[in-house]
């Protein structure tokens, strides 16, 4: 097990595409870090550079404090689980599991011991003599994980390992991966575009966008205090509501919408043009909170435990998340309120930096 | 098929197929018949495939008075050498064309393809001059070079196409598991490419086994003749020994038929590889 450091890491391609820009990140020994972002954000490229499958065009990668840029993938002592599992089709499950150890000339008894331990742990005992094509998707996934475990590497790398599984199996396997990490405490770097995986698995999540690191924090911190508008919109489902407008005295104004912060104007940001953001669960029918206007219900999505209600508020589309007790029907017009602790103000420029949040005010 | 077709259609379909089978099988049976006739009876009004007075004498003559075995040995030697060389080069060359992106790669692939567009007869004269100037007249080495050069473009494309269907993630997994690029190729990619290699080998072998034009330029000594040249030598200017010719023709095709039968399972998976994307 080891720490991993990226120092000013860059990757650009001959065609001019800059996949990763000046990425600096320190991953603690034993930490579970999730790289998350939309496709093309550079998360997979970063993982592949760490694995040694792609060359960094600038900066440094360190494992346990040692520069590894020039090392072959096999010399970095990492194990990787691929999206399509990449099991060797011509080998049995047993040979797939032991391949890495055989390549490293591990003694035979040691190989047998580790393979049977991993098979036991992952419930692969019955499958050891089968070929990958005779396995179900879930079983292949287990073999891929087993192949990583038997190696006892410095770190595990996961590249979207659950995206080929159906929803139920994905949730189950996600929980198993979390348990495996609790048991082995091996440093883990996990790449996904699925924010639920990111939130539930990561001890720290690293949000990337257009090759740049946006925020690296604990899942709850990223959720509660997104660094900028991109992170705020990317993490959370349904996505955060945004209203583009301006600050006028102690009020937020967007067309006919007004929201009183209830603060002295001096405490509000200096920028006049801002974006107001708030999560669907913080849109409230509670009349004790300041109002943001009258919304007309356009659509109700009831998922049983809760419901997502789409509103039209003076021409802006908003989504609210409510318990199912309150019956709302399309066409109904009601007063909408916003909890004074749960709004964010973002700069209206391209950075979209978070300027102030309701919770930051004592 | 869920809907059953009418009986007359099935019947018509089979009749048509039988007709074409007859067209393709008749010449072969005719050759068999000629090879079994005593002496040199090419034109016979007898319709029996096996003549009443059939004899092995043509076959026996082939092995006793004619240098048929020498020719077969020559052909086997040349064909196997071409196969070995062609497969080795195509296996490695196809891999690099599939996996590496280097300057001139596309141009190279295209120019390799262009060489296939000239008919061999057009190249006879320049070929003869080249062979003569290289002092390769009457040498198997000359044949080996030319056969390999003719077969290699197809083999390269075939192997490149086959490697393209093997996911690169497998090699990446192997490299992370501790393989070098070479051992990842040896342990993972190569075993998966066997069907492609078999097709390539078959193609190389057949190219050399049945080639006549180049052999006729290069080989002049009857001792060095390959089978197609030997066969042709029965067709003398004054009288053609049709019985020997027919017997030899059948014997020449036997190895090819055997190889096809033996490699059939590989052929099916090889020819369809790449048709379905995983």
Order of helices and strands of chain B: HHHHHHHHHHHH
- Beta-strand fraction estimate of chain B: under 5%
Count of strand segments of chain A: 21
| Range of strand content of chain A | 25-35%
CATH fold-level label of the largest domain in chain A? Rossmann fold
Q: What are the secondary-structure elements of chain A, in order, as H or E?
A: EEEHEEEHHHEHEHEEHHEEEEEEEEEEE
Termini distance of chain B?
26 Å
| Alpha-carbon distance between the two ends of chain A | 42 Å
CATH class of the largest domain in chain A: Alpha Beta
- In DSSP terms, counting alpha (H) and pi (I) runs of 4 or more, how many helices of chain B? 12
Mean pLDDT, all residues of chain B: 85
Total helices of chain A: the number is 8
Estimate the mean pLDDT confidence of chain A: 92
- Helical proportion of chain A? 10-25%
How would you sum up this structure in a few lines?
By secondary structure, chain A is α+β, with helices and mostly antiparallel strands.
Task: Give a written overview of the molecule.
The complex is a heterodimer of chains A (362) and B (278). Chain A is an alpha+beta fold. Chain A folds into two domains: 225 residues, Rossmann fold (3-Layer(aba) Sandwich); 130 residues, Nucleic acid-binding proteins (OB fold (Dihydrolipoamide Acetyltransferase, E2P), Beta Barrel), CATH 2.40.50. Chain A contains eight helices and 21 strands. In chain A, the strands form four sheets. Chain A has a six-stranded mixed beta sheet with strand order 6-7-8-3-9-10, with helices on both faces. In chain A, α2 crosses α3, α2 runs parallel beside α4 and α3 packs across α4. The longest helix of chain A has 18 residues. The radius of gyration of chain A is 24 Å and the shape is elongated. The two termini of chain A are 42 Å apart. Chain B is mainly alpha-helical and 278 residues long. Helices cover 71% and strands 0% of the residues of chain B. In chain B, α1 crosses α12, α3 crosses α9 and α6 runs antiparallel to α9. The longest helix of chain B is centred in the first third of the chain and has 32 residues. The C terminus of chain B is likely disordered. The interface between A and B is medium-sized, with 23 and 18 residues.
């Amino acid at each position: 097990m080891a720490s991993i450091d990226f120092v000013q890491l860059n990757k650009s391609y001959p065609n001019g595409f800059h996949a990763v820009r000046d990425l600096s990140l320190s991953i603690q020994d034993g930490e579970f870090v999730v790289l998350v972002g939309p496709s093309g954000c550079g998360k997979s490229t970063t993982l592949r550079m760490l694995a040694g499958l792609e060359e960094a065009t600038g900066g440094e990668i360190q494992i346990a404090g040692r520069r590894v840029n020039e090392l072959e993938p096999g010399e970095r002592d990492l194990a990787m689980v691929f999206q399509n599992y990449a099991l060797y089709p011509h080998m049995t499950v047993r040979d797939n599991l032991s391949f890495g150890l055989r390549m490293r000339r591990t003694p035979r008894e040691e190989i047998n011991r580790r393979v049977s331990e991993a098979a036991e742990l992952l419930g692969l005992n019955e499958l050891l003599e089968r070929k990958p094509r005779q396995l179900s998707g879930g079983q292949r996934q287990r073999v891929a994980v087993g192949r990583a475990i038997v190696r006892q590497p410095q770190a595990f790398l996961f590249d979207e390992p659950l995206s080929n599984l159906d929803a139920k199996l994905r949730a189950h396997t996600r929980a198993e991966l979390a348990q495996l990490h609790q048991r082995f405490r091996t440093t883990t770097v996990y790449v996904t575009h699925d924010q639920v995986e990111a939130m539930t698995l990561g001890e720290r999540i690293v949000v990337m966008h257009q090759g740049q690191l946006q925020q690296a924090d604990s899942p709850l911190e990223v959720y509660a205090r997104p660094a900028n508008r991109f992170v705020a919109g990317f993490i959370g489902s349904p996505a955060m509501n945004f209203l583009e407008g301006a600050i006028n005295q102690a009020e937020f104004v967007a067309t006919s919408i007004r929201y009183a912060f209830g603060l002295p104007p001096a405490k509000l940001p200096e920028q006049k043009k801002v974006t107001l953001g708030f999560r669907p669960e913080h849109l409230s029918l509670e009349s004790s909170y300041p109002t943001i206007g009258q919304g007309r219900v356009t659509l109700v999505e009831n998922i049983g435990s809760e419901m997502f209600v789409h509103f039209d508020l003076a021409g802006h589309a908003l989504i609210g998340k409510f318990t199912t007790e309150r019956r709302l029907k399309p066409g109904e017009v009601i007063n909408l309120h916003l909890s004074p602790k749960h709004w964010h103000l973002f700069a209206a420029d391209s950075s979209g930096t978070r300027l102030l949040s309701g919770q930051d005010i004592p | 098929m869920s809907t059953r077709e009418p009986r007359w259609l099935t019947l018509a379909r089979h009749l048509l197929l039988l007709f074409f089978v007859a067209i393709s099988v008749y010449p072969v049976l005719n050759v068999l018949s000629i090879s079994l006739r005593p002496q040199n009876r090419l034109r016979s009004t007898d319709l029996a495939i096996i003549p009443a007075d059939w004899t092995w004498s043509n076959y026996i003559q082939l092995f006793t008075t004619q240098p048929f075995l020498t020719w077969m040995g020559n052909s086997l030697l040349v064909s196997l050498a071409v196969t070995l060389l062609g497969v080795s080069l195509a296996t490695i060359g196809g891999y690099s064309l599939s996996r590496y992106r280097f300057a001139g790669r596309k141009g190279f692939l295209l120019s390799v393809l262009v060489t296939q567009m000239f008919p061999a007869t057009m190249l006879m004269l320049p070929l003869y001059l080249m062979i003569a100037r290289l002092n390769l007249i009457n040498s198997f080495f000359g044949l080996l070079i030319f056969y390999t050069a003719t077969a290699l473009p197809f083999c390269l494309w075939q192997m490149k196409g086959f490697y393209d269907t093997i996911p690169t993630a497998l090699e990446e997994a192997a490299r992370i598991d501790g393989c070098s690029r070479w051992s990842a190729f040896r342990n993972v990619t190569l075993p998966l490419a066997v069907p492609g290699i078999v097709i390539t080998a078959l193609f190389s072998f057949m190219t050399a086994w049945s080639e006549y034009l180049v052999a006729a330029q290069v080989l002049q000594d009857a001792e060095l003749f390959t089978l197609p040249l030997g066969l042709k030598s029965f067709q003398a200017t004054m009288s053609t020994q049709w019985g020997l010719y027919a017997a030899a023709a059948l014997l020449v095709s036997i190895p090819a038929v055997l190889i096809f039968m033996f490699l059939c399972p590989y052929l099916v998976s090889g020819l369809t590889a790449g048709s379905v994307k995983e």
